[in-house]
Amino acid sequence: MSARRIWPLLVAFATAAFAPFAGAQNWPDKPIKFIVAAPAGSSLDVLARTIGDRLKDRLGQPVVVDDRPAAGGTVATDFVAKSPPDGHTMVISFNGPLAFGPHLYAKLPYDPQKDLAAVIITSSQPNVLAVNASLPIQSVKELVDYAKANPGKLNYASVGNGSSSHLTMELLKVTAGIDIVHVPFNGSPPAVTATIQGETQMIFAVMQPLQAQIQAGRLRPLAVSTAKRFPLLPELPAVAEAGYPGFEALAWNGILVAAGTPRPIVQRLNTEINAILKDPSVKSTLNAQGFELVGGSSEDFATLIRSESDKWAPVIRKTGARID
């Protein structure tokens, strides 16, 4: 092939290769869609709105929060996995759609590790085991004894099929040998409401949606799902202290964009959100609601997704949890 014919091909190749980086230099050049894999008023929604409000000032573009809680967060996560990889659409998702989903669903419409690019871990905290305050229960041991005396008669709420709220209780069921019935809800607001109204008797959830009901005396917290006591809730024992050593199940979440998003955009998002999570006013406000903010590199988040998926695969098989 002559040089005259090769040159246009080289120019075209170089232009195509350079285009994503040229686009990254001008990013963001329009509003950013911030998809939330949970309903309005949920802990994930609180995080997204706190981060989005500050991110808009740092990036100079509006950040539009869009709650899409359907199908345990998998619809929102899939939406971003299939969005243009230009950094203008991101999702705050959690361990359900990202680590548990591949082992719970016969077929997910996306691969969490191939179709999404991890940006940053936002928070990681325990689920709090809480019961309706009318129950004569003051501890995990009393709850287990009560459940064993009433097999199949107690219900527990979760914030959705495949969530850490769901699987943490399933882990307790298997570990303690109790028979209680799962009632899934579309997010924490209705799940908490069902528990205070007595439709369900107990729930594992992060502290933020439980806090007001605990303070009002409608729910009684029994324990946290960390391996040891949680520094932000030191008065609550760990489930492991009730005779179940090694019991641990964290509720973590983070921000992702579509795979193929230019690396400079992912890095810029990571840098800006890290700065937001380290802001003293943000930390104090969210710590008071039970959030333990994390941050770190995008690689840290990708590693967490892989390791948690590997960790929970055998647990899910053991519990028999399945969503079809």
Summary keywords:
single chain; 324 residues; alpha/beta; D-Maltodextrin-Binding Protein, domain 2; 2 domains; 5-stranded mixed β-sheet; globular
What does this molecule look like?
The chain has 324 residues and is of the alpha/beta class. It folds into two domains: 6-124 and 251-319, 3-Layer(aba) Sandwich (D-Maltodextrin-Binding Protein, domain 2), CATH 3.40.190; 128-242, Periplasmic binding protein-like II (D-Maltodextrin-Binding Protein, domain 2), CATH 3.40.190.10. It is built from eleven helices and ten strands. Strands 2-1-3-10-4 form a five-stranded mixed sheet, sandwiched between helices. Strands 7-6-8-5-9 form a five-stranded mixed sheet. It has helices at 3-25, 43-59, 74-81, 95-104, 140-149, 164-176, 188-197, 207-215, 263-278, 280-287, 298-319; strands at residues 32-36, 63-67, 89-94, 116-126, 128-132, 155-158, 181-184, 202-205, 219-224, 250-258. α2 links the parallel β1 (32-36) and β2.
